[in-house]
Amino acid sequence: MKDSPVNSLLKELIYFDKKSTTSVYIQISQQIINAIQRRYLKEGTALPGTRILSQLLNIHRNTAAAVYDELAAQGWVEVIPNKGTFILFPKSKTAKIKALSNQIKDAYSYPKATGFPFNNSFHLSPTEETSKAKYILNDGHPDLRLHNVHEFSKWYSASMKRKSLISKWKSNTKKEFSNFEKQLCNFLNSTRGFHIKPNNLLSTRSTEMSLYVISRLLIKRKDVVLVGNLSNYNANMIFQEVGADIKTIPFDENGLDINYIEKHFTKGKIRCVYVCSNRDYPTTNTLSAERRLHLLQLAKKYQFAIIEDDFDYDFQLDGSAMLPMASSDGNGMVIYLGKLGQSLFPSFQTGFVVAPENVISEAKNYLQILDKQGDLIQEQLLSELIYEGEIYRLLKKNIVIYKRRRDYTFDCFKRYFNESIQIKKPSGGLAIWIEFQPSISLVQLAEHVSMLDVFLPKTLLYQDKNTCAIRFGFGHLNEEEIEIIVSRLKQAYNTIK
């Protein structure tokens, strides 16, 4: 029996690697399926028993049994008691719909356009750019290379094995507040000076989702939303999508000009003000304490909401971060947006909203439509990392590295560009704001530096009659990469100046 044609074929075709992360029985079953698909093993062919298969391939008999179980589960074999295991060839159970037109081939290709009209989002033009350049710039992202893959895989695996997680998946009832909401609430109270409870908190997939949900609840068509002259592109697109009338406000080294708001607008004319108080996007300037107080007073007087986006609060590199306006808001005027887990892998990061209970209650109802399931594994993992202090440990560890990279980036630009730029070292965050003096064509700069294997996306370029600047993210770059990129930017600058 060992020398039968089927046995010889299996012995010749099947190879597996015991060191592979894929289980041996999966490797073997995949290769048998491949042999069936190629018609090496025909329908009705009897396969050897598990004892003989284990001897042929030098595997444990339990592994051989697992191979056949896997094949049977996928419908490739039929196990007949007391007779053996026989090859099947799964037949398509889906009948094709016959074409109604003469062009039969058209029924079996997917159309490029709809056969019905719909409303285009004309203002939502795509901003994604692709490049094969070796060095790619962004607006300030963490460095994934700093993450310990083994630690994260261990935490994720442990979270998936929790019996409590399985019970949550099976449950049709939801506790009033999850352990994650309680842990996140405790973390924000200790790090941001809040005095909130879980009913003041909403967890989302990202700050963009947070802002979208809040905008849908808060803003009607033609409502006036105030943003800085230079502001967050993604936020502006969300405001446009909900039909807001966006008005821009001047800013300086102390952040948004609150006096301008008071002089040019009246009560009832403003729906909300969007502000990155800790570090303005894109300039990195901090809204001063005096202007924060003034804005809170004006919000109460004019009855408008403040959307405080604090996307990089955790990356405070010098001293202590100024506490959010929301931490001293006694009148319910501030809706606070933030991120958790930026020192973790992107899939472990989460956005959150802190606001009065009535807003959170409505936002949760809206989120049920967008993301009812959520991510229980992520919540389980983050709860444990907060409770065990791992998030705080990782953040402090990475801040030392990011501070060194910020200083090195600042020194590089000063060394290469000297008086050609105006640059200020930010107190935190993962990006530096660089203004060129005199003005140059930033589009040309991006084109020339791309020839030097450096990709400078258009979303990092800020140019009008008063501004000529780029937002240079350094977080994802090591010191050697920073040196190379800045030197090539200088080379491209010399070509066009």
UniProtKB/TrEMBL annotation:
Gene Ontology molecular function, alphabetical: transaminase activity
Keywords linked to the UniProt accession: Aminotransferase, DNA-binding, Pyridoxal phosphate, Transcription, Transcription regulation, Transferase
Tagged with keyword Secreted: no
N-terminal signal peptide: none
Superkingdom of the organism of origin: Bacteria
Residue stretches making up the HTH gntR-type domain: 22-90
CDD domains: AAT_like, WHTH_GntR
PROSITE patterns documented for this protein: HTH_GNTR
Family to which this protein belongs: In the C-terminal section; belongs to the class-I pyridoxal-phosphate-dependent aminotransferase family.
Protein name according to UniProt: PLP-dependent aminotransferase family protein
